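Task 17 of the worksheet. Students: predict the tertiary structure of the chain below and write it out as structure tokens. Keep your answer in the requested format; marks are given for formatting as well as content.
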Amino acid sequence: MRDVLSFPFNSEETIVVASDNSGGIGEKEQDAVQVPYETVSYYSFRVAVMECMSAGAQPFAAALQNFCGDDAWDQLIGGIKKGADELGLTELQITGSTESNFNLLQSAVGLSVLGKRQGELPADRLICTEDTRIAVIGSPLVGQELIEREEEAAPLKLFKIINSIEDIMTLPVGSKGVLTELNGLFSNRRFEIEDLESEVDLVKSAGPSTCFIVVCPEEKLGEIMKLAGRYYHILNRKS
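Model answer:
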């Protein structure tokens, strides 16, 4: 099931809204993970924009909620622009607000991405058949390990390319892990951990969507494997 809100814009288009937030990550003394604010907003934008694009929408705006203080604003905007540049979103509009009346002891950021798609959203629930193939692109990473192993996270450019392939479905993985996301995809199949074989940890948090699921027919698997390269992890069903 997708973590997006959608509503009709006109007779032909649908507005899609996706959101993300982070807390305790940033440059304040009591933050659990110490990283620049540009990194904080980049990864928050990453989550929201991947959710939006996975739903078939073209992002056109981002709204930032900054609880880190006025001094963090420019870096936070810089992180959003960095992500937008990687996706070629040259006309993305950015707005937002800062809590400047009170100082928090830890950093906190909220971010929403708005997009438009033609027609209604694709079906949330798929039918799992003998021809259905599942792959995980990237590795689940969270917190400090993402800083140390950033090269294992699926690049935004790669997500954009794979997401544009016809007859496939993508789903960014969040804090609940691959298995939970997978069990929200199919209307006729629920998986237990022992039903699946994979190189990646299927129950581990993927933090800011450092990996994503691809569901496709077998004929598309070779193309996806070639595009993803070292980020590709097949997910085999035992039965």
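Marker's comment: The chain has a mean pLDDT of 94. Residues 37-54 form the longest helix (18 residues).
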